[in-house]
Amino acid sequence: MEYVERRLTLLEERISQWHEQSSRYSTELRDFKNQVLGMLEAAEKEREAMRTEAESAAVRVDRLEREVDYLEMQNPAPPCVEVDETLMEKQVATAKQRKNEKYTKLTDCSDTIASIRSMKILKRFGSTSGLWTKDAAGNSEKIYVFDGTANDTVYVFPRMREFTLFSATRKAARIKLPYPWVGTGHLVYNGHLYYIRQQGPFQVIKFNLANKTVVDSSVFPAEEQIPVFGLSPFTYIEVAADEEGLWAIYATKEDEKNICLAKLDPTSLDIEQMWDTPCPRENAEGAFVVCGALHVVYNTRLPSRSRVQCVFDVSGTLAPEDASLVYFPKRYGSHSGMKYSPHERQIYAWDDGYQIIYRMEMKKKLEV
After folding, report:
1. Between which residues do disulfide bridges form (predicted)?
2. Rounded to whole angstroms, what are the CA distances from 333 to 193, 242, 299, 350?
3. Does the global pTM surpass 0.85?
4. Whole-angstrom Cα distance, residue 189 to residue 201?
5. Over the stretch 47-65, which tens digit does the pLDDT of each residue have?
6. What is the dihedral of CA 66, 67, 73, 74, to 10 degrees?
7. DSSP letter at 102?
């Protein structure tokens, strides 16, 4: 019995020690939990303080940008671009002399559009009308955005990824032009922006995007211009690029029913040749040039499926009646901007505020 009692006493002592150790461990665990909770609360307060500071910094940056824009607006330093009436008359006379002459191609490009291979809707950004594009010469990944139909600012995104992922313009650089642009017929080509300015007669401004200066300007040598597209009354000149170089698509009261085409010298902005095309202005919403052939896109007043319904080949290789009737996929509204990229063989389109890429299937003109 004494042995059993000693063993029981020893067992009781061990149980008592276990209770003490458990109580101590529980206390230490509770203290550690309280310490961690305190650290988490402090971290949350620091995170909230950093978020508040970041928002405050963003507000200050936006305010600074607005102040800089205001100062630039109040103290502009535009280069001197004057309209020389004598030079304008000479350009008009020279252009008329070369009107509808046979065109000698600069390249061996002989492709035409067979069909629209695919459509990719990237996002919805800005106004219902506008223009977005890349450098048509294919030497830059930057995205240029003209929001609306009249402004003096161009948004520049570094790559397609930034333009696609971010809904705001905070990730975009802003280029404030010395003169406001009008319409959606502008073009970025070989590091230069060719944009349309309206001050009495329409001018094509050549703007160097690297040093932010006006390189050249030219009064467009066409009298009594009217909107070139019946469904896009805000565009009077559409500057386009293809494998052959630069073109200007326009319309005048002299032949108000049809669209006219001109070949531009990208260096001097001189008109090299001009053509009267059989493509009507009525119900036209946009146009682009592929391998020296003007493609005019048509729709209806109540937007339906857009289609390339008139093709005019300046070299005479492709007759208008032999061209394929190309339909675009059904979308939201009508196109306000369409820019062909000869390097990528695709079209950057602005459709009721949506930015779309059309990839095209091409084939030889002789196969049509």
Report:
1. 109-291
2. 27, 26, 9, 10
3. no
4. 23
5. 999 988 888 887 887 677 6
6. 160
7. P
